[in-house]
Amino acid sequence: MPSTDENKSQSDSKMARRALIASTAGSAIEWYDFYVYGLSAALVFNHLFFPSSSPYAGTLLALGTFFAGFVARPLGAMIFGHFGDSIGRRGVLIVTTLLMGFGTFFVGLTPTYDMVGIWGAVILVALRVVQGIGVGGDWGGSVLMATEWNSAKGKRGFTGSLPQFGSPLGLITATIVTEAANRMIPQESYESFGWRIPFLFSFLLTGLALFLRLRVKETSSFEEAKRDGTIRQAPVAYLLRHHWRRVLQATLMRAGQHASFYIFTTFVLTYGVTSLGQTRSSMLLAVMLAAAVSLGSTLFWGSMSDRIGRKRMLQIGIIVMFLFALPYFGLLNSGITALMVAGIVLSLVVHDMQYGPQSSFIAESFPAEVRYSGASLSYQLSSITSGGPAALIATAFMATFNSTLPIALYLMGMCLIAFLALFFMPSVDDATDTHDTPMPVHDWQTAS
């Protein structure tokens, strides 16, 4: 008959598997909500909510509402990081799922400029902030729910990449639903009511995410912290007092990856349609193909980091991204369909060299007592410094210079920032760390 320890181990392993499924599926649904907004902002929101503006100005304004969600993400990270570190990961994930789901659903009910004038855009921004707060608090919990189980030791690069896997899965789902609505409904009807369908569809996806996440217990790491009495009552304040340098480093380390993603998936849609003369459907299908390939590459590079180390994998990824920036736009500007599609697909494979192992690396850089706060805040601050402005900056550069060269140079500059930030971060991997040991203390840093 199995011993008590064996029964507990089997129970923990079963719950860890549930946690992986719930984290991955929940993350995919959360990102579906976020990306379906980005697709609509790039394709139809410019004339639905800003009809009096020029095409580029309208696109900038529409992407500005998209940026509002990025500004709200660090706020969500701070709010839910506090509760995630003080009361637990599981309950926080339930709340963030509801926030994202209802925020997205009500975007689908928002009146356009023809109905209420500029108030439609105001409502849109408010709902985008709700979305941003939700996703800002959700990412950290999803990653920790996947990696903080004892059975994840030795393979946290892979398990941490599973919530990241939810991002391309969410992008694929958002693209499929958006494209299906666009194809089934005449263009005039689509811009009247069809664009709302992908947002309203999120109601069903939110229900699925809640079902999966309610079946998961609290992580073993957090339960151990509770038993040991190491829970901080004000984890965010403690984090910013003792580990602010690590937060800054992790934020800047994301610069190249985060900026590139929104250039590769959001800006490219506008650029392809307005500057390259491609159809909206062809650009959406190319991005969807890239996201499908990204499903495998995200997991591959995450698993590779278990073999060669997270930091080394990230360094390689940044260098490859730097070298890829100019060829990427060369492929797009070639005018040859096969080369354009190849550039779009390769862009996410290169992006995933950083994205796959990034979640585990960031989580491993903070001690358990402030891990939710530290991982969430550093990850989401990048939304303001890198991810959020990227599509706006690329669109503005294109309108000003009528050339993709400044955009490529901008991306290369972000890679340099990322490489320098990563250089000063220590290597903390499963091979040498228990995942619950506080990060190394340097002579320039005080921790207690």
Describe the structure.
The model is unreliable at 431-448 (pLDDT under 50). 55% of the residues are buried. The protein has one domain (13-217, 243-423): Up-down Bundle (Growth Hormone, Chain: A), CATH 1.20.1250. The protein is built from 19 helices and no strands. It is mostly helical.
Element string (H = helix, E = strand): HHHHHHHHHHHHHHHHHHH
Assigned CATH class: Mainly Alpha
Strand content: under 5%
CATH architecture: Up-down Bundle
Distance separating the two termini = 45 Å
CATH level-four homologous superfamily name: MFS general substrate transporter like domains
- Low-pLDDT windows of residues: 431-448
The main sheet comes to: none
Mass-distribution shape: globular
Helix and strand composition category: mainly alpha
Q: From the alpha-carbon coordinates, what is the Rg to the nearest angstrom?
A: 21 Å
CATH topology: Growth Hormone, Chain: A
Q: Total number of β-strand segments?
A: 0
